[in-house]
Design brief:
Strand order of the largest sheet of chain A: 2-1-3-4-13-12-11
Shape of chain B: globular
Helix content of chain A: 25-40%
CATH topology of chain B: TIM Barrel
Number of helices of chain B: 10
Radius of gyration of chain B: 16 Å
Number of domains of chain A: 1
Radius of gyration of chain A: 15 Å
Number of domains of chain B: 1
Helix content of chain B: 25-40%
Structural class of chain A: alpha/beta
Distance between the termini of chain A: 10 Å
Shape of chain A: globular
Largest sheet of chain B: 8 strands, parallel, barrel
Strand content of chain B: 25-35%
Number of strands of chain A: 13
Largest interface: A-B, 39 and 40 residues
Number of helices of chain A: 5
CATH class of chain B: Alpha Beta
Largest sheet of chain A: 7 strands, mixed
CATH architecture of chain A: 3-Layer(aba) Sandwich
Oligomer: heterodimer
Strand order of the largest sheet of chain B: 1-4-5-6-7-10-11-12
Chain lengths: 177, 247
């Protein structure tokens, strides 16, 4: 059974990630260093998240250097970059080269289901910033949707809230862990 | 732009789904988790639960309902009703809700919107606006909030709201169609996503609302019958509305 540890950094909807991972048969553990998969969830704002991560930031960097799987979701993807424009500029974890910039879409936040290419499957997005990185391996309406760099996989959408399509995506992450 | 969204709305009181026309004449129509899961399975894009409980004791059930919904439903859901503080909202998000919705509390103290946006991120903060003839109503639309709807919408955006859920009170429950003029004015007034509410009677009404808004709230048109959502989605597709493939 795959073990999953969720990096906690403050208030927000982490329970949905826990429930989704459990539904797929994985075991939740507290050990961020040794779990089969570490998840950096997507809640709140960049500065409070980086402050809230504390020690876990180093654990995640070590995991990445050792080539052990990490999944970043939404803000969790943006935090993995070198920096983000949010909150007047915040240094990220630096796991993936690139930066998070404010969306320039007609309607921000960008909220709703949108297809991800390649594949065309729709997932649920809710974001005001996007990853600007060469590590993007899938896009949604021109925005980075999936980012892969070494053992880090980041998704701008919320697989834990994307119904059957999201469950299939999470399952593939767990099977690689 | 993401795909247009269909959002069934479930009014909840004391942990049960209730139904009433224009916020009155309430009757019990089912369990929020069962109904929510059924809508999710039939292609709902999101769900909204509005707690219209009258008493403090009943309101305490909201977090428990949100927690139960999160266990069964794997699409996003918003919880509204009786949220007055960041702590109220945080408890609902920690239970598994994705967004919270505030209405009268934000009118009484607009700084609440900023506090919520700072703590939870704008994407989690929906401001519900009940409007009639271009003016805002408060307290389940029983009082005149003494504000212009478009001005209040702009203020909500400036204060950090992430979405507006706009209910045309004079249309709510009538099934005579959405207030398209009001929705078009809101589209031009703000750059937030707008969820249109009040007046859906048939698929054409919903298609019209989705042409000027990003999402449509569905209440009386579904008659608390999830099968109606299946039929509605099919009709909307026939009208050329690009709904997501929910398989």
């Amino acid at each position: 059974m795959t073990t999953v540890a969720i990096a906690r950094y403050g208030a927000g909807n982490v329970r949905s990630v826990e429930l989704a991972v459990r539904r797929l048969g994985a075991e939740l553990v507290g050990d961020l260093e040794n779990a089969g998969l570490a998840v950096l969830p997507g809640v709140g704002s960049a500065r409070s998240a980086m402050d809230g991560l504390g020690q876990a930031a180093d654990t995640l960097r070590e995991r990445h250097a050792a080539g052990r799987p990490i999944l970043g979701i939404c803000l969790g993807l943006q935090l993995a970059l070198d920096e983000t424009e949010e909150d007047g500029g915040v240094a990220g974890l630096g796991l993936v080269p690139g930066r998070a910039v404010r969306l320039q879409d007609a309607r921000v936040p960008r909220i709703g289901w949108a297809p991800v290419e390649p594949g065309g499957e729709a997932y649920w997005f809710a974001h005001s910033y996007e990853a600007e990185t060469e590590a993007a391996t899938a896009t949604s309406e021109g925005h980075a949707a999936i980012v892969e760099h070494g053992s880090f996989v980041g998704v701008q959408f919320h697989p834990e809230k994307s119904g059957a399509a999201g469950a299939r995506f999470l399952k593939s992450c767990l099977s690689r862990a | 732009m993401p795909l247009p969204r269909l959002i069934p709305c479930l009014d909840v009181a004391g942990g049960r789904v209730v139904k009433g026309v224009r916020f009155r004449e309430l009757r019990d129509v089912g369990d929020p988790v069962e109904l929510g899961a059924a809508y999710s399975e039939r292609g709902a894009d999101e769900l909204v639960f509005l707690d219209i409980s009258a008493s403090v004791e009943e309101k305490a059930s909201a977090v428990r309902v949100a927690a139960r919904v999160a266990e069964q439903v794997t699409i996003p859901f918003t919880f509204g009703g009786g949220i007055r503080t960041v702590d109220d909202a945080t408890a609902l998000l920690e239970a598994g809700a994705d967004k919270i919705s505030v209405n009268s509390a934000a009118l009484a103290r607009p700084a609440l919107i900023e506090e919520l946006a700072r703590a939870l991120g704008s994407q989690a903060v929906v401001v519900a606006i009940d409007t009639e003839h271009g003016r805002v109503r408060s307290h389940s639309a029983t009082r005149d909030a003494e504000r212009d709807t478009l001005e209040w919408a702009r203020e909500c955006e400036q204060r950090g709201a992430g979405e507006l859920l706009v209910t045309s009170i004079d249309r709510d429950g009538t099934q005579n169609g959405y207030d398209l003029e009001q929705l078009a004015a809101l589209r031009d007034a703000v750059s937030l996503p707008v969820i249109a509410s009040g007046g859906a009677g048939n698929a054409r009404h919903v298609a019209e609302a989705l042409a000027v808004s990003q999402a449509a709230l569905l209440a009386s048109i579904l008659h608390e019958d999830p099968e109606r959502l299946v039929a509605l989605r099919e009709e909307l597709r026939g009208l050329g509305v690009p709904l997501r493939d929910a398989a």
